[in-house]
Specification:
Largest interface: A-B, 36 and 29 residues
Structural class of chain B: alpha+beta
Strand content of chain A: under 5%
Number of strands of chain B: 3
Shape of chain B: globular
CATH topology of chain B: GMP Synthetase, Chain A, domain 3
CATH class of chain B: Alpha Beta
Largest sheet of chain B: 3 strands, mixed
Number of domains of chain B: 1
Distance between the termini of chain B: 25 Å
Order of helices and strands of chain B: HEEHEHHH
Helix content of chain A: over 70%
Structural class of chain A: mainly alpha
Number of strands of chain A: 0
Oligomer: heterodimer
Shape of chain A: globular
CATH architecture of chain B: 2-Layer Sandwich
Strand order of the largest sheet of chain B: 1-2-3
Helix content of chain B: 25-40%
CATH superfamily of chain B: Fe-S cluster assembly (FSCA)
């Protein structure tokens, strides 16, 4: 009893707490409510008992509005907390109380909270996130807990009371939101049926201003909701209201029967009247509220409301007619979007009405007329200027055309009304006349204003849009067009208009091709081959037009593509073949009109034809012809052919392997033809294969593998690649152009493309190659002097990796091939051979002789280290590094040897750091010793770059591709150990500018590799070195140091933007200004884009300097202004633009 | 400002134009070669052209209406001539009405903006387009008198007005 008596006292105190502020009162109330709820939950007190307590009764019935509010809020809280244990009669009583209390204006918020609690436990309804959840809720995302307590009668009572007693719009936002939440909950399961019954029983409420006189006619459900919504401005409430109205209309139409459907029709005007106030929607959500209602949310809800009943169609048309004169294209676009949604949703309903009811037929036809005029006006209004390519009006016009298409779809299957409308259109008639008249007509096309031609094009687009609505309409449009103009003649006379029309019509036909047998289409089908031939003939003539706005050549290609992609019963195989080969000839003819764009387009046509017709012979012919063009040797044809093949390979995965093989074969044949050992064609082929075709093929194969498809053998590609590799190495060439890298990359991908067994065999071969001596590395010989015999041998022995033993460079090739094959993680390493493999790889890396080869093998080596177990690392890797690698680096006298050694060290250190291995620090120390060795100062800059591989982020994608494992925060740990060593080395080598430049290369990658906040603890040193690095790196070779310098300037910029770091810059301001001013003038007249980037970054830093105190900057004012004046006349536009804004910032100083 | 005091109560408002150089238009450059839009030879100078000048002045706010000069059709890139090598810029502008009392201020804003963002080697001429204003000659004379322009920009009240108009171009 002690607890109850304590509760009674606190209840009493709650009523007296008038002087307390709201927060304290709420706190106290919540505590009391919690205690009371606990008692109820424990069964020591029932809810009715609580209400019957003298103190509670006093609170609930007090004359003081504050006490009443407190009491009602308390009751609401208790109900919320005890919902799961309340008994039916308790709920009945409490609800009856709350419903009665809805009349009490002062306690409305508390009462609504109580009602809301009784309706069920909705998650997060208080916040904006909850609103979003509710708004999303056509699938019932409003989660009602198992504690749903209201019976159907109760729900009816609540709905009736709410509709009757609450005048929503006269209350504050929180109250309105609660009301809308309750309405929303009532319109969802399981209460929706109760509300529906209430609506079916008759008017659900009397307006509040009728003083509750029941004899007056009340309102129906929709009317009440419209009244609730009318005047609402809060976005959260609006969203709820829109959703509720849509739901209510859906309920009334779906489950309500004829009577209630009529109620919707009756209220459509009022609903449209209120909804029209919200279109166009002007609402910009506050920037800080991430989860708040967005404009798009509101717009979608509004659109859903409009699209809730077909009865709103006339009102919607009226709305658009009212709003379209707006100068804002956004309004038009949104209006057209709304119309599009509406027509899409209700096409069936409207069409059914049209067919069944005569009076509705006339009504709808009038509306279609009205809509037609509206849309036509929007399509015609598009502005055209020569230099304007994409403006908002284009969007309006395309939306209008889309809507027009839907309007045509609406009546398409049952009426030709829209076709009539189209042919009554003056612009359409004029366009057809222009098309028919040609140059002999009144308007000579060369002298016809461009705008007029564009207007004609749009009119013809209207025609094709209408034709696309149904096969009936298409046939009718064809018939009437034929009466006005002969299209085949039109193509000669007036190609711009005729081609545009044909293109659009063939596009429209795409959706209707299943109905080929329809009357009226037969004639068109017969004409199709002639049309294709005419277009093909026209193509070289209009090719040069591709750069103007009409894009006739592209449309011509598009029309041919559409024709070729039609089904077999429309177009014969031989016609398709003729067209495709014609197109290929067109795009490959040197000196012709075909642009690169056209080449790509033709390749796409080939791919599409292959997809539709599956004609392997045709594609073979195309590839053969393209390869012939590639072999012909002309630069132009070669590039074009390669581009086309790459596009086809990318589009059609099943052709990629074949294309890749043929291209590598071509590259082998072409090697040595041309000015250098690696001909231009070979180099281009290898680039395309390495960077486009193979990665794409790998991706496709992965998808294919998941779907259980089979893979084609790729050993022939491997053989070709190995022969190319040998030749590249023999020629000692290819690093600059990336030939070697492309070959290795292709080789890696090719290995990954194989089946599991083949890959295992490759891996075994690779290990064998590594372990073998140079003389014994041949698996199968391919002699270039006897290709036929070699091919036969290849068939018999099927050698997987074949190297030419006669080659002088077989040793290096051996390592590179093995590295490329072993690089991907997917390739298993034979058990027990890890040590041999690692030793052999390291041997390869150290003996590679070139940086690229050393880098490649080192990556493979690091990949293998990453895949080893901990004990293997201890037993194999650590001795390998200390005994072999380090002793090599120390004893090595040549610069190349040191460089290769450091490359291997950097990659192994990276692999160890990713595992957070304790040996990492020792390796880092050794690496620093190498870098700072006075003997290596000549190549310190490049050594610095090599060193950076240990932490650089630019290799992350590479590592991710191979699925290397890394421990959490490995980079941060490496940063700590690396930065302390680096700063110490920077101090030690102050007098050695060469070594410093190398160290700054590492520093640049180091600061870039971690999040800026990680730098803050060592801010002073970081900033000092950043500033010092600028003049140092500027004085070095531009190309080598530019990357590091740009990265350092970027970090400096971030530091200047940071309030805490800026103070540190202030201490170094003299050096910083001098360095930045120098960087602003870096390579102004000869450095190209990379130096432009440097200048831009330096200017951005200078702009941020103005945040430093005025007195600090004042001494440098004139120096900076002078430099900025020079930058305003920089060679590059981007620099000038930044210089302008920097100047502005300094002007305000 | 009261509506009655406006020179043009109901100006025609245009949409912001998407002006691009020919080489920046997709499709007009190369599609698949990997050359991105706007690519020009690395070491070549990108000349200051009419579009660059237009980019600087298009967003200047009209002194009377809450629109930019471009939206009101006062400036357009066709009305700008630039000779980068010769160091000459000529900007013509068209007030919305022939009796616009703000023509001088608009011209001053254009000139001030150009002076601030372009190198001083350019000789800048800002004038009304032919026949667009009732006092065309007088306004042109004022706008191209260097002394007067500098004096005007030293007047704090006038400078404040000019800065207000230029504010949208500087964000």
């Amino acid at each position: 009893m002690g607890a109850e008596s304590g509760l009674a006292e606190r209840l009493l105190a709650l009523g007296d707490a008038r002087d307390e502020d709201e927060v304290d009162r709420e706190q106290r109330r919540l505590e009391v409510a919690k205690d009371a709820s606990d008692l109820v939950l424990q069964g020591r007190l029932s809810l009715l008992h609580l209400v019957a307590m003298k103190q509670t009764k006093h609170l609930l019935t007090s004359d003081s509005k504050l006490a009443r509010t407190e009491g009602t809020l308390l009751l609401a809280e208790v109900v919320k907390g005890t919902l799961t244990v309340l008994k039916k009669h308790e709920v009945d009583h409490v609800l009856a109380f709350f419903c009665e209390r809805l009349k009490d204006w002062h306690t409305l918020r508390a009462t609504l909270s109580g009602c809301r609690a009784l309706l069920g436990n909705t998650e997060g309804t208080g916040g904006s996130g909850g609103i979003k959840k509710m708004a999303a809720g056509s699938d019932g995302t409003l989660s009602v807990s198992e504690g749903t307590r209201l019976t159907k009668e109760n729900a009816k009572l609540l709905a009736r009371s709410l509709f009757e007693h609450v005048d929503v719009q006269s209350h504050s936002q929180p109250n309105r939101q609660l009301c809308f939440e309750i309405v929303d909950a009532l319109l969802r399961e399981p209460y929706d049926e109760a509300v529906l019954e209430l609506a079916a029983a008759g008017p659900v409420a009397s307006p509040p201003d009728s003083s509750g006189s029941r004899d007056e006619a009340g309102e129906d459900l929709l009317e009440v909701l419209v009244r609730f919504l009318d005047g609402e401005k809060d976005p959260r409430c609006l969203l709820l209201a829109f959703v509720s109205i849509e739901r209510a209309v859906g309920l009334l139409r779906g489950k309500g029967g004829r009577e209630l459907d009529l109620a919707v029709v009756r209220n459509a005007a009022a609903l449209a009247d209120v909804l029209s106030c919200y279109f166009p929607l002007s609402f910009s959500p506050p920037k800080d509220a991430a989860k708040a209602v967005t404009r798009e949310d509101l717009l979608e809800a509004l659109f859903s409301c409009y699209c809730s009943t077909p009865s709103l169609f006339p009102h919607l048309i009226q709305l658009l007619e009212d709003r379209f004169p707006s100068p804002k294209s956004e309004t038009k676009v949104e209006g057209l979007r709304l119309l599009g949604y509406f027509l899409e949703k209700f096409a069936g309903d409207l069409r059914a009405d049209y067919e069944e009811h005569d009076e509705k037929k006339q009504e709808l036809e009038a509306l279609v007329d009205q809509a037609w005029d509206l849309l036509r006006a929007q399509i015609s209004q598009r502005q055209d200027t020569a230099s304007t390519v994409a403006d908002a009006s284009c969007d309006v016009a395309s939306r209008a055309l889309e809507a027009l298409g839907k309007l045509a779809d609406l009546l398409g299957p049952c009426s030709l009304k829209v076709v009539d409308l189209a042919f009554e259109d003056a612009e359409v008639v004029a366009a057809l006349a222009a098309c028919a008249s040609g140059p002999s007509g009144s308007e000579d096309p060369p002298h016809r204003p461009k705008s007029k031609t564009m207007a004609h094009c749009r009119a013809l687009e209207v025609l094709s849009t209408v034709a696309g609505s149904s096969v009936l309409a298409f046939a009718e449009v064809l018939r009437r067009t034929r009466e006005a103009v002969d299209v085949l003649q039109g193509l000669d006379r007036e190609p711009i208009l005729a081609v545009h029309f044909v293109f659009k019509m063939t596009l429209a036909l795409g959706g209707l091709e299943r109905d080929a047998s329809t009357e009226g289409m037969e004639e068109f089908r017969v004409e199709l081959p002639d049309l294709c031939r005419a277009l093909l003939r026209l193509l070289p003539r209009v090719g040069m037009d591709a750069e103007d706005d009409f894009r006739t050549a592209s449309e011509c290609l598009g029309a041919l593509e559409n024709c070729c992609a039609l089904r077999g019963d429309w177009i014969g195989k031989e016609v398709v073949e003729e067209v495709v080969m014609g197109l290929v000839e067109f795009s490959l003819s040197p000196g012709g009109a075909a642009t690169e764009d056209h080449g790509v387009r033709v390749a796409l046509v080939v791919s599409r034809v292959h997809r539709v017709h599956r004609d392997a012979d045709l594609v073979d012919r195309v590839i053969r012809r393209t390869l012939e063009a590639l072999a012909a040797g002309g630069e132009w044809e070669g590039d074009r052919a390669l581009l086309m093949l790459a596009v086809i390979a990318e589009e059609r995965c099943e052709l990629s392997t074949d294309i890749a093989f043929k291209l590598t074969h071509r590259a082998v044949l072409d090697w040595g033809h041309g000015s250098g050992p690696c001909s231009r064609v070979t180099s281009s082929i290898l680039t395309k294969i390495g960077t486009n075709i193979m990665p794409h093929l790998y991706k496709c194969t992965c998808d294919h593998r998941e779907s259980g498809g089979t893979l084609k053998p790729v050993s022939k590609i491997v053989q070709n690649l190995i022969r190319l590799l040998e030749r590249a190495l023999a020629a000692g060439h290819g690093e600059e152009e990336g030939v070697l890298r492309n070959i290795l990359c292709s080789l890696s991908y090719t290995t990954m493309l194989c089946t599991e067994e083949m890959r295992a065999e490759y891996a075994a071969e690779a290990v064998g190659l590594l372990a073998s001596g140079e003389e014994a590395l041949v698996v199968g010989e391919i002699s270039t002097s006897r290709p036929a015999a070699a091919a036969a041998a290849a068939e018999e022995d099927a050698p997987l990796l074949s190297l030419n033993p006669a080659s002088e460079v077989a040793g290096e090739a051996r390592h590179l091939v093995a590295a490329a094959v072993l690089t991907p993680l997917g390739v298993p390493l034979p058990q027990g051979e890890a040590e041999d493999v690692l030793h052999a790889l390291l041997g390869g890396a150290l003996g590679a002789g070139t940086d690229v080869a050393a880098g490649e093998i080192s990556v493979a080596l690091a990949g293998r280290v990453n895949g080893l177990g901990s004990s293997q690392v201890e037993e194999i890797v650590v001795p390998l590094v200390t005994e072999v690698l380090l002793s090599h680096v120390r004893s090595c006298e040549s610069g190349e040897g040191v460089s290769s050694g450091l490359t291997a060290l950097a990659w192994i250190a990276r692999a160890l750091a990713m595992r957070k291995h304790k040996a990492t620090d020792a390796v880092l120390d050794e690496m620093f010793s190498v870098l700072c060795d006075p003997e290596n100062k000549g190549q310190a800059l490049s050594l610095g770059r090599t060193f950076s591989a240990v932490i650089s982020t630019e290799h992350d994608a590479l590592v991710d591709t191979w699925g290397w494992t890394a421990k959490l925060l490995w980079r941060q740990k490496l940063f700590v150990s690396l930065s302390s060593r680096l700063f110490a080395r920077l101090e030690q080598n102050k007098g050695e500018p060469d070594t410093l430049a190398g160290l700054h290369q590492v520093f640049s990658h180091l600061v870039k590799s971690v999040h800026f906040s990680v730098l803050k603890p060592s801010a002073k040193e970081v900033v000092r070195h950043l500033v010092a690095s600028v003049p140092l790196l500027l004085s070095r070779d531009q190309a080598q140091a530019a990357g590091a310098l740009a990265a350092n300037l970027e970090t400096l910029k971030t530091a200047l933007a940071d309030d805490a770091m800026r103070g540190v810059v202030e201490d170094e301001v003299g050096e910083a200004v001098a360095a930045l001013v120098a960087a602003c003038g870096a390579g102004r007249h000869n450095g190209g884009r990379s130096s432009a980037l440097l200048r831009r970054r330096a200017l951005e830093c200078i702009a941020l300097l103005v945040r430093l105190p005025h007195h600090v900057l004042y001494p440098f004012f004139h120096e900076v202004r002078k430099q900025l004046d020079r930058c305003l006349d920089d060679d590059k536009r981007e620099v000038r633009s930044v210089a302008g804004s920097t100047m502005r910032a300094w002007r305000t100083l | 400002m009261a509506a009655a005091a406006l020179d043009n109560l109901n100006p025609v408002v245009r949409e912001r134009e998407n002006v691009r150089r020919r080489e920046e238009v997709p499709g007009l450059g190369s599609l698949a070669s990997g050359a991105g839009p706007g690519t020009s030879a690395e070491d070549e100078r990108e000349l200051i052209d009419s579009i660059e000048v237009f980019e600087h002045i298009r967003d200047i706010a009209d002194p009377e209406h809450p629109y930019s000069l471009e939206q009101l059709g006062v400036v357009s890139h066709e009305q700008i001539d630039v000779d980068d090598r010769g160091g000459k810029i000529e900007v013509r502008f068209t007030p919305t009405v022939a009796h616009c009392s703000m023509a001088t201020l608009i011209g001053l804003c254009i000139r001030a903006k150009i002076m601030r963002v372009l190198p001083p080697r350019f000789k800048v001429k800002v004038e009304l387009s032919k026949g667009s204003h009732s006092t065309e000659e007088a306004v042109n004379k004022q706008l191209n008198d260097k002394e007067r322009v500098l004096a005007a920009l030293e007047n704090p009240n006038l400078l404040d007005l000019v800065n207000k108009c230029l504010a949208p171009t500087e964000c």
